[in-house]
Write a structure and sequence with these properties.
Trna Endonuclease, Chain: A, domain 1, 5-stranded mixed β-sheet, 5 helices, 7 strands
């Protein structure tokens, strides 16, 4: 958490990826790849890939965004990458805020696609740093939104 405030952009980015890796392991996901880039992603980088093979197979695609704001374009890029990575879940972890347009776009995608999108901003990270066990709840709290949006 300390390195998330580093003036060194590289160190800050590595800290965010390490924190996200730790969080995914907290919810018992299986690590697959870091900085996946290649033919499968049309040469666009995916920060982290995890899988869950318990009840229903899920592939989790994670964007670690070390920037002041996550934009609609950032979410749209991740949604587009799911077609190559075959992900069912997108998690965006940001050291900054998430724009209202990004939230609205995530809701639109949740309503029409079989994707779950979880958005975590800097305040969520601060809360999790104090009490790591609330991470699972942060994810779970965004799931009902998808159920409401997909209601027939």
């Amino acid at each position: 958490m300390k390195d998330l405030s580093s003036a060194n952009r590289h160190r800050k980015g590595q800290a965010l990826e390490a924190l996200t890796f730790f969080l995914m392991k907290l919810i018992d996901l299986k690590y697959i790849s870091t900085r996946l880039r290649g033919e499968v992603t049309d040469w666009v980088e995916v920060d982290l890939i995890f899988e869950n093979k318990r009840f229903i197979y899920r592939r989790w695609q994670i964007l670690c965004k070390n920037a002041p704001t996550v934009s609609l374009d950032d979410i749209a890029k991740e949604v587009g990458l799911t077609y190559q990575s075959k992900s069912n879940v997108i998690i965006v972890v940001s050291t900054g805020s998430i724009s209202m347009e990004a939230y609205k776009y995530a809701d639109l995608v949740r309503a029409i696609k079989p994707l779950q999108i979880v958005l975590l901003n800097v305040n969520d990270l601060k809360d999790i740093a104090k009490k790591p066990f609330i991470f699972r709840g942060k994810i779970a709290s965004q799931a009902p939104c998808a159920f409401i949006l997909k209601k027939l």
